[in-house]
Amino acid sequence: MTLDTETQDGMSAVAAECLRRIITAGGLDAEVSIGTPDASDILLEITGADAGSLVGQHGHTLDALQYIVMLIINKKRETRIRITIDAAGYRARRVLTLSKFANQLADEVVSSGQEALTDPLNPMERRIIHTALAERGDVSTYSEGEEPNRYMVITPKTS
């Protein structure tokens, strides 16, 4: 479900202010701006001297911030709003990295005829791989396992 513009603008402002307070409480030098969302309802972008430190190892700190802000924003809502938080362009770089990795893995699957498994990935990363390989006619993808150890399986398509 997509939000109407008025609701999206209002909730974006609330989410941005919530994230600003968290960053300020942490004593970090970073700014929050509202971006143009793609796959989510709200996109918040963090820039500034400490933006990179908010990414954390493999994006875990960024994921945690995103989760906290989503919990706060969705606490009393019937319909869930999806929020994406990016810091220092990390998410965009991660999409490129995962897309390249997915295509390399798919090439190996096609040449060997054997399926390939990824390491465990979070839901957003699995979605990136699914999307990156969706247009290819030579492989298919699906997820297996239980969170937090859910991973992707890339299999060759049979003609």
Q: The CATH topology of the largest domain, please?
A: GMP Synthetase, Chain A, domain 3
Instruction: State the CATH superfamily name of the largest domain.
Output: K homology (KH) domain
Give, in spatial order, the strands making up the sheet with the most strands.
Answer: 1-2-3
Overall pLDDT level: 92
The portion of residues forming beta strands comes to: 15-25%
| Class derived from helix and strand content | alpha+beta
Helix content: 40-55%
> How many strand elements?
6
Order of helices and strands: HEEHEHEHEE
**Biggest pleated-sheet summary:** 3 strands, mixed
Tell me the count of domains: 2
Radius of gyration based on Cα positions: 18 Å
CATH secondary-structure class of the largest domain: Alpha Beta
Number of helices: 4
**How far from one another are the termini?**
36 Å
**Mass-distribution shape:** elongated
Which stretches of 5+ consecutive residues score pLDDT under 50?
none
CATH architecture of the largest domain: 2-Layer Sandwich
Question: Which terms would index this structure?
Answer:
159 residues; alpha+beta; GMP Synthetase, Chain A, domain 3; Ribosomal Protein S8, Chain: A, domain 1; 2 domains; 3-stranded mixed beta sheet; 3-stranded antiparallel beta sheet; 45% helix; elongated
